[in-house]
Amino acid sequence: MDPMSPESRDPETPRGPRRPPPGAERGPAPGAQAPEAPRPGPERGGGWLGRFREGLARTRQALGTRLDELFGRPLDETFYEDLEETLLAADLGAGTTEAVIARLRERARAGIRTPDALRRALAEILVAILGEPAPLHLSPAPAVIVVLGVNGSGKTTTIGKLAHRFRREGRKVLLAAADTFRAAAIEQLEIWGQRAGVEVVRHAEGSDPAAVVYDAIQAMHARHVDVLIVDTAGRLHTKANLMEELRKLDRVVRREAPGAPVESLLVLDATTGQNGIAQARRFQAALPLSGIVLAKLDGTARGGIAVAIADALRLPVKLVGLGEHIDDLQPFDPRAFAEALLTPAGATSPRAS
Amino acid sequence: MFEQLQTRLGTVFTRLRGRGTLSAEDVDVALREIRLALLEADVNVKVARDFIARVREAAVGQEIWKSLNPGHQVVQIVHSELTRLLGEAHRGLVAAPKPPTVILLVGLHGTGKTTTAGKLALHLKKQGRHPLLAAADLSRPAAVRQLEIVGQRAGVPVVSPEGGEDAVALARRALARCRELPGDTLVVDSAGRLHIDEELVAELARVREAISPHYTLLVLDAMAGQDAVRMAEGFHRAVPLDGLILTKLDGDARGGAALSIVATLGRPILFIGTGERLEALEPFHPDRIASRILGMGDVLTLIERAQEQVTAEQAKELERKLRRAEFTLEDFTQQLRQVRAMGPLDQVLAMIPGVGSRVRGMDVDERQLGRIEAMINSMTPQERRHPEIIDGSRRRRIARGSGTSVQDVNRLLRQFQEARRMLRHIETLGRRKGKFPMPFQQP
After folding, report:
1. Interface test with B, best of A188, A271, A353 (most B CBs within 10 A)
2. Up-side HSE of residue A41: CA atoms within 13 Å toward CB?
3. Any domain includes B337
4. Which tens digit of pLDDT belongs to each residue from B65-88?
5. What Rg, from alpha-carbon coordinates, does chain B have?
6. Residue to test with chain B: of A87, A151, A190, A247, most B Cβ within 10 A
7. Pairwise CA distance, residues A300 & A34, whole Å
8. CATH number of the domain where residue B370 is located
9. What CATH code is carried by the domain that includes residue B199?
10. Does residue B294 sit within a domain?
11. Which of the four, A212, A213, B166, B313, has the lowest number of CB atoms within 10 Å?
């Protein structure tokens, strides 16, 4: 006799739904992607670049200074070796670093001689990899943003900042506490909700995340919400059952909010190394990601993994998180990022603590 | 990736085979492969450079480039250098002569400090110690609440901040509380902070001064990249570190950053976090991790985990059945359950030498096992013992009962028969060294 003993206290076993929302298995709604409507991107100009550079000041100190020394030297093999080491140290990874240097060699052969021209060429190569600025697509309202990532990447904090930003822009925001797994995750989101002054749809801890999302989308329609932001539990991309859970969550979103713009954002810790590529690839395989949020870029890590991911997967970085303050979330500008990475340290004064 | 290192080196050396002695350039090609593997595992650029230099030295000294199987020997050298770098033997937490032993956890945001605090408390409790947790993360929303819940699950009391207390005052009060309880170990959680945030790092230094921890441990994310060494150095300057806890090793990150920090600071890794369950904290064994890094399997951990699940009698009984080919579906379910109790399947498989590199990054779908178990559970005891009696109508019943299809049941039965035939075959061959068949692999 073998009574089935469901080891449900073990989170490694599938955190399956207890009760699927009505009609949960009807499959994805066709044509869920909305046609692009013009809308102003998150505001730019003003202190934007300044803040961005400020956060990157230490990055520049580390990388820019070295590059500055480098660019003053003749273009021999040692130069390329040192440049290689510098890019590797910024987490660009071996493959992307090799590709960048190969392109730079080509340009050099074409006749670049001055350090400044070389620096510009390098910046252009990085920008070409990073692609155009990719603003969030949130119209026509209501839009849904699903925030994903491995444990501890900064999802909940990012959501708090996003909610605050949208509120300031005059949008009606709703949060969905679909991290029903980690202890006190719901409370954490509620505190951010209070700070930003937005409502949170929540169920009990341990309940089905897809059911939370289902309810949140009904509430979104009923309360005429402009943006619904869904917090999800942190999950390592190697756990098949947890990735399946995301797939289901995505199905619910696209079926219950047909035609609504959906942003599926992968939050990536800027200190992440080469594992970031595997993360992006596996989340991408589970559901269509629309972009990356590069969080915690205010340390000394350079976030070069974003370049490596863009190189491997053509996935744009949409936002960067620069600190713990509720205002510290900014749209990502590839050119500013590349130039900030390469500008000599003296160009801007480092941030005073 | 590291697990590809052997394959990579193999390719390099196959190409070079039959050329007699290898030139200096051949050596460089091999070392370049090693360097790439290290970099892809997030080993710090400078650490990788030094490491390569040492491997080159060791290799030259042993004249391995002239040997018959240089690839194999290089891997041996890399393995022993890795082990040396990671610190030779496992080091545990030593209880302070005058209790309580005080442990302070520090680190960047989101590395897993709070979860690790709970795991550590449970680990200590299982060892018969009397830990106490201090919730000194006053920055992150609901962090105190999280530790309270985690502490409750571990059955360990938690000291939470009261009325406007700061981290320093709270830590001091927790230490006093630990003495009066009396507890023998205090584990202090702290807020995540940047190593360059002078204000918060100074606060950490004050916490340290207030409680004089025996162990200040840096909690490091296995996914950390090149900046980890700078970060660790930053913390080390403010609060001298005694060791590391490496978290989230249950993913596919190789944890090269940890190796870099150990190499730079000369502080050991004490524990590794291998899952979200509170039990998922393991002592760190340098030699085993070096093997895992190189894709050589982690047999010792596997055996340890198996021993926790299987009694000696059970093992003997199973062996008898295997040898007499009496292995039934009943035995199989029991096996299945024991294997699953050892941990997530992909982790268990990754520890088997030769299998590790193949399952790494592969979806191991645990639900397949669940389905198999459901099918077997839907059989009568008679059917389990004599699967040959299962006819068409019984198959339909089993499929219905387990929520699977008749095809699934057919496949299971076919694979079981094959496995049994193989077992019989092995038995006739005697106990010869060979590969054990892997039955019941669903396509």
Report:
1. A271
2. 12
3. yes
4. 555 556 666 767 777 787 788 776
5. 26
6. A151
7. 39
8. 1.10.260.30
9. 3.40.50.300
10. no
11. B313
- For residue B335, what are the domain limits? 303-433
Stated pTM of the model? 0.74
- DSSP designation for B4: G
Is B241 part of any domain?
yes
Compute the nearest-CA separation of A190 from chain B (Å): 9
Closest CB from A14, A91, A182 relative to B226: A91
Are residue B78 and residue B106 in the same domain, yes or no?
Answer: no
State the greatest distance between any 2 C-alpha atoms of chain A, in Å, as a whole number. Answer: 80
- Per cent of chain B over pLDDT 70 is 69
Interface check for B143 against chain A (CB to CB < 8 A): the answer is: yes
Torsion of CA B219, A318, A219, A188, to 10 degrees: 20
Dist CA A46 CA B193 (whole Å): 29
Is A88 within 8 Å of B226 when comparing Cβ atoms? yes
Same domain? For B249 and B334 the reply is no
Residue B303 pLDDT? 54
Query: Is B96 inside any structural domain?
Result: no
Q: Which residue has the tokens 């499959």?
A: A27
Q: How many CB atoms lie within 10 A of CB A133?
A: 17
Number of domains chain B contains? 3
d(CA B328, CA B423): 12
Q: Specify the length of chain A in residues.
A: 353
Rounded Cα–Cα distance for residues B229 and B248 (Å)? 18
**Chain-chain contact of A272 with B223 (C-beta, under 8 angstroms):** yes
Residues B323 and B359 grouped into a single domain: yes
pLDDT at B16 over 60: no
Residue of A nearest to B375 (CA): A4
Identity at A137, one-letter amino acid code: H
Dist CA A60 CA B432 (whole Å):
62
Centre a 10 Å sphere on the Cβ of residue A50 and count the other Cβ atoms it contains.
Answer: 10
Let me know whether B271 and B309 are in one domain: no
> By C-alpha distance, which of A260, A352, A192 is closest to A35?
A260
Q: Which of B191, B202, B226 is nearest to B110 (CA)?
A: B191
Task: Report the 10 Å Cβ neighbour count for B107.
Answer: 27
Residues 6+ apart with CB under 8 A from A326: A160, A161, A164, A195, A196
- Tell whether B159 and B213 lie within a shared domain: yes
Partner-chain residue, chosen from B199, B227, B252, that has the shortest CB–CB distance to A278: B252
Are both B340 and B274 inside the same structural domain?
A: no
Residues B316, B190 share a domain: no
Q: How many helices (H) and strands (E) does chain A have?
A: 11, 8
All residues of chain B having their beta carbon less than 8 Å from the beta carbon of residue A276 are: 223, 225
Q: Both B420 and B369 in a single domain? A: yes
Looking at residue A262, its amino acid is: V
Cα–Cα nearest to A328, from A40, A55, A42, A60: A55
pLDDT tens track for A204-234: 999 999 999 999 999 999 999 999 999 999 9
Q: Of B91, B92, B94, B189, nearest to B132 (Cα)?
A: B189
- Among B55, B85, B115, residue at a domain's last position: B85
Contact between A243 and A281 under an 8 Å Cβ cutoff? The reply is no
Tell me the one-letter amino acid at A80.
Y
Supply angle C-alpha A44, A45, A51, rounded to 5. 90
Answer yes or no: do B194 and A187 touch at CB < 8 A.
Answer: no
Looking at the DSSP bridge assignments, the partners of residue B243 are: B217
